[in-house]
Amino acid sequence: MKLLLTKRLARSLWRTKLRLLAVVLIILVGVMAGIAFGHYAHTATTMYDDIYADSDDGTNLADVWVENPRTIWSSSEASTLCEEISAQWPESELVMMECEPRLVVDGLLFHTDEDGVERLVPAIWHGIDEGYVDRIWMPEHDCCDGRLAQAANEIVLDAHAVEGLGVEIGDEVSIGAGQGGMNFTIVGFGYHAHHLYFAAPGTIVPAESGAFATGYLTAEGLEALANLTAGSANVLLIDIVGSPDYDLLSTDEDEGELLTPVVASLTEIATGVDQAAIVYDRSGIASVEFLRADAEGAMKSYPVITGMLVIVAGITIFLSLQRLIQSQAREIAILRTLGIPRSAIMPSYVIAPLGIGLIGSFFGALLGIFLGAPWMEAMYEELIGIPVLSGAVATSSLLEILSITMLLVLISGIRPAWQAANLDPLVVMRGEHEVKLSSRAIQRMTARLPTTVGLTVRSSTRKPIRLAFTFFAVGLSMLILGSMLFMMDSMEDLMIGNVEENANWDSQAIVFPGTEGNIVDWADENSVDYELLLTFPANLVDDPRQLTVFGLEEFATSGEGAMQILNLAEGRLPVADSPTPEVLIDNGIQHFLDWQVGQTQTVLFGSQAVEVKIVGITEGEVSRTMYFHRSDLAAEVGIEATSVLLTIPDGVDSDELSQMSIGIIEKQGMIDSMNSLMEKQQGFFVAIQMLGVIIAFVVLFNTLIMNLAERDSELATLRVLGAPLKRIGSMMLGEHFAIGLIGGVLGAIFSILGTKWLMSQMVQWAFYFEVSADLVISAGLAGIVLFISVALTPLGMWRVRQMDLVEKVKEFSN
Amino acid sequence: MAGTLLEIQGMKRYYEMVSGTVKALDGVDISISEGERIILLGPSGSGKTTLLNCVAALDSPTAGDYSFEGAAVPRDAPEQMTTFRRDNIGYVFQFFNLLQDLTVLENILLIQELSGGRDEKRARELLALVGLEAEVDRFPTEISGGQQQRVAIARSLAKSPKLLLGDELTGNLDSKTSAMVMEVLVKACEAEGITTIFVTHDESLTQYATRVIRLDSGKILSDENV
Over the stretch A114-131, which tens digit does the pLDDT of each residue have? Predict the structure, then answer.
C-alpha cells in the first residue's frame, strides 16, 4: 500500500514538472557550489599544511624570526646572537632545533624585454646556503625545474616571475641591490615560503608576472651583490622541534600558549644584543598569514555559502510540498475516509523530498566534482600563482556537503508530511481547507482601493508565511549576489581608488637607511618634487601582533598638500614635535584594539617602548597602520628614511634612480597589478553573482507559480465571466511588481546587513576593510528582484491563456 | 413580440478520444427568443453542459451555425470569445465561485471594473434585488450557501448580460434554498429583462421555466413551452 501511495505522489509531483525542476535545480546548484567552495577551502588548507611542513617535501617554515630592520649584522654579530639565543633559551616544552642566519635584501632586476625596452623590476634577494629552514619549494611539476644555486654567480628565480620575464634556465639575469648590477645564471625555478603569495612589500595585491621578482642566491652570491662581508645577515630563522601553534590574528583565543612566551623571551635576548631587533612568529610573515587567512576564510565561508544555498533549497521544497499537499487535500481526505492510516500517508511525503534531494545532490555532485572543483582549483592557481598538487575532491568534504543537504531536505519535508498526515477529512470535504483569506487588516487597508487593486494586494499577502519565506530566500540569494558586488566595489575603491586618488607620487625609491641623500640630490638637480618616507615595524605591548608605522613628511587630507593623502575619518592631523608624539591610527587598529582619539598608547620599536598620543583615525588601509611625523619617528628609531616618494615630471629620465636605490615601486605598476587582480577575480565574482541571480529567479518563479496555481479557480471564474486577458495581465503585473519591489528592497537591505556581518566575521588584524553600502548597487539589487518578478508575468499570462475553461467550468459544477 | 436572441442550427461538438469519436452534440437546432427562461434537462452525458458551453462561447462547436442577435458568434478565437462573453453572457456556477477575499459588494464591483465600468449604486441595487442589501460588507465565508448563490446571481447580472447561463446552479443547495434562489433569479431576470438557460437534473425546477428542452446522446428529444 505504501508503495502505491508513494507511486501516486511521484505521479502527482511529475505533473508539476516545472516546479519540480526548479527545486532540483536549486539543490543541484547548492551542492555544486558547496563542493566547489569546499574544494577550494580544502585545497588552500592542504597546500598551506603541505608546503610549510617540517618534512622532506615541505619547506620547513621557521617558527620564529629575529629581524634587524635597521641594518645588517656582521657574521660574528649574527653568530653571537644565535649563541645567546641558544644559551638563554627559556624554560619551555618547546625545544630549539636550529638558528640559521640569513641575508635578505631588497633590490632590482634589470630586465630587457623582447622589444629591447629596459625595465627595472623591484625585487627581493635571499641568500640561502643549503638551508635547513625556509627551504626553496621546488615540487615535481611543470612550474619548477632545475636545481638550487651552488656557485656564487647562480640564482634560482621565483617561478611566479618566470612567465612575465620570459626567461629560461641557463639565461643570465642582471640584478642589483643598491651597489650596481651583476650578472647571474639562472639554474632553477622555484618558490619560497615567504613569497608563495607573490606580493611586493607594502601591498597585499599579488604582482603581475614580471612586475616583481624574488631570487634565491647562495649566501656568498648575495654578499657579493650587496657588497657585504661574508656571513652578513639581517634575519635569524629559529626552528623549533615540531610546529608549535602560534597565536592567530583572527581569533581572541591564545593558540600560541607555548610559543608566545618563547617569542617574548627571545625578544628580550635579541634586543639585549641589538636594541633594534624585532622578533615575530608566523603571524608576522605577510605571505604565510595571507595563505593561512585565505584557507581559514574559505573553511569558514564555504559551509555558510553552502548552508545558505541549501536553506534556500529547503525553503523551496517546504513551500512546494505544502502547495502539493494543498492541491492533493481531497485525495488525501478520500484515502483517510477509506481507512488509510496517518502512518501510511506520512512516509511518502517524507520520501518525496528525499528523492528530490538525491536527484539534485547526484547531479550537483557530478557537476561539482567535474566542473566546480577544477574551476576553483584553477582560480587558486591563478590567484596565488602556485600549482595545486593534490587535485582530488576530499571525500570528507563531499560527504559533509551531501549529508548537510540531505539533512536539510529531510527537515524541510517533515512538517508538510505531518500536515498531510493530519488533514481532517471532514474539513477538507467541506472545502474549508481551501479558504485562505488575507488578514483583516489588509482587507481594511485595501477596502477603499479599486477592487482589482485591492484583490491584487490581498492575493499577494494571502500566504504571509510563504511570502516571508520567499523574501527570506530571495534575501539570501541577494546576499550571495550583493556581498560580491559590495565587496568588489569596496575593494576597488580601497585598493585602486585609494592609490589613484591619494598617491600624489609616481615612484617610490627604496633606499638603505642613510643613503637617501643620493636620491634627494638627484631630485634637487632634476627639479623633481620629493618627500622622505620612513617605514618601520612596531609591536604592541604584550601582544604578538605587528603594525607598520609610517613617518610622513607632510600630512594632508586632500589636494596636493602631501605626497600621500590620508582619509581622515575622525580627529585631526598630528602636530610634529609634540611632547608625546602625535599619531594617526587606521580604523582597523581602532576596531581590533579599541584605541580611540585622545588616548595615549604604547608601541614597541624593538625593545624601545614609545608612548604616542592618538589624534585621529584614518580609513582605507588594508593592513594595520600608524602615521607619525617623520621627524618624530626618526627620533625614536634612529634612521631618517627608508624610501623617497617622487613626482617625476615629463622629460626627466629616472633610470639613474636604479643605481641609487635598492628598489623602485611605480604607482602605475601598483594600479596595473590591482587591476590585474580584479580582472583575475572577475570570473569568480561573476560566477557567484550569477549563482545569486539564478537562485533568486528560481525562488521567485516557484512562489509566483504556486500563487497562480492556487488562484486557478479565481482566474478561471474571471475568465468565464468575461474578464479580458489584458485586465488579468494588469492585475498579475501589479502583484508581481509589488512582490518584486518589496522583495527587492528587503533583499537589498538583507544583503547590506548580511555583507557587513559576513565581513565583520572575516576581517582580521592583517586584513581589515569595511564594506560600504553603495546606493547604486543597492538599487541594482532591488532592481534585479523587481525585474525577475515582473519578467515572470508573461509566464503567468501564458498559464492563464492555456487554461481550459471548459474543464474549469466542469470542475465548478461537479 | 420578442425578437430572436440566439439561433443555433446543426450544432455538432465531437471529441476525439482514444476509444473513438464522442459525439457530445450531434446536430442541435434551437432558436431562443428574448425573455425566455429555458431549462435544459437530460441524463449525464446527454450533451446539455456541452451545449451550454458552446452557447457561452467557452467552447467552439465542431460544426453548425450559431448566431447571437443575428451576428455569428466567434469560435476558436479565445479573446473574441471572451469579449463576446463579457458583452452578452452572465454565468452562475454550481459552487458559486465567489472570490473569497472580496466582500459581497466587492465581488460585484470587481466584475464591473473588469467589464470597464464601476457602478457601486447599481451593485447595491442588484444586491437588494437578490435580498442581500444587509450583507454587502460580509465575506462569502460569512454567509450561507444560498446567500452565496444569490451573490453569484447578482454578480452575473452586474454587467447587464443579455443571456444568463447556469449549470446545476442549485445542485449544491437543499430544496428549500433552491426554491428561494430560483425565485430570486426569476424575479431578477424579469426585472432586468434577461433571457436565461439553465442546465439541471432537477425536474422540479421546470416550474420556473417558460420552455423545457430535453437532450439525450447529443440530440434534442423534446422542446416544449411550459
Answer: 777 777 788 999 998 766
Domain boundaries, chain A: 1-54+289-429, 64-280, 436-500+670-814, 512-660
pTM above 0.80, yes or no: no
Other Cβ atoms within 10 Å of B192 Cβ, number: 15
The alpha carbon of residue B48 is apart from the nearest alpha carbon of chain A, in Å, by 12
Cβ proximity of B215 and B51 under 8 Å? yes
Closest C-alpha to A717, from B93, B108, B200: B93
> What are A72's three cell numbers?
645588517
- The partner residue sitting opposite B58, judged by closest CB among A727, A801, A806, is A806
CB A80 within 8 A of CB A250: no
Please report, for residues B6, B52, B146, B188, B224, the alpha-carbon distance to residue B183 in angstroms, rounded to integers and kept in the order given: 25, 22, 12, 8, 21
Contact A437 B171 (CB under 8 A): no
Record: contact B53-A806, CB cut-off 8 A: yes
Tally: H helices and E strands in chain A: 26, 21
Residue of B22, B51, B55, B82 to mutate when probing chain A, most A C-beta within 10 A: B82
Alpha carbons A307 and A550: distance in angstroms, whole number? 42
Q: From residue A631, how far is each of A534, A575, A647 by CA, in Å?
A: 9, 11, 21
Query: Smallest Cα–Cα separation from B10: which of B78, B62, B72?
Result: B62
- Looking at the complex, does the CB of residue B115 fall below 8 Å from at least one CB of chain A? yes
Q: What is the mean pLDDT of residues A755-778?
A: 83
Closest Cα in chain A to B109: A451
Q: Which residue of B has its CA nearest to A812?
A: B95
- Under DSSP, the state recorded for A69 is S
Question: What are the tens digits of pLDDT across the range A71-82?
Answer: 889 999 999 999
* Residues A279-321 pLDDT 10s: 888 888 888 888 888 888 888 888 887 888 888 888 888 888 8
Amino acid at A707: N
Answer for the pair A348, A732: CB distance below 8 angstroms, yes or no: no
User: Cα distance from A452 to chain B (closest Cα, Å)?
Assistant: 6
Asked if A443 lies within 8 A of B101 by C-beta distance, the reply is yes
**Quick one: what percent of chain A has pLDDT higher than 90?**
26
Chains A–B, number of C-beta pairs less than 8 Å apart: 103
How is domain B36-60+78-225 classified at the CATH fold level?
A: Rossmann fold (3.40.50)
Please give the single-letter amino acid code of residue A422: N
Better pLDDT: A584 or A107: A584
Measured distance CA(A766)–CA(A586) in Å, rounded: 12
Nearest to B59 among A436, A806, A812 (CB): A806
Write out chain A residues lying below 8 Å of B168, CB-based: 813
Facing residue for B113 by CB, picked from A443, A451, A812:
A451
Contact flag B95-A812 (C-beta cutoff 8 Å): yes
- Residue B75 and residue B54: Cα distance in Å, rounded? 9
Nearest to A599 by CA among A587, A590, A609: A590
| Residue A48 or A659, more confident | A48
Q: What is the domain partition of chain B in residue ranges?
A: 36-60+78-225
- CB nearest to B111's CB, from A450, A462, A721: A721
Q: Which of B97, B100, B109 sits opposite A812 (nearest CB)?
A: B97
User: Would you call A720 and B113 a contact, using CB atoms and an 8 Å cutoff?
Assistant: no
Q: Going by C-beta distance under 8 Å and a sequence separation of 6 or more, which residues neighbour residue A739?
A: A460, A467, A470, A700, A703, A704, A789
Has the ipTM of the complex gone over 0.95?
A: no
Interface test with B, best of A800, A809, A811 (most B CBs within 10 A): A809
The cell numbers describing B14, all together, are 465531437
Paired residues of A616 in beta bridges: A571, A584
Give contacts of A439 with chain B, Cβ < 8 Å: none
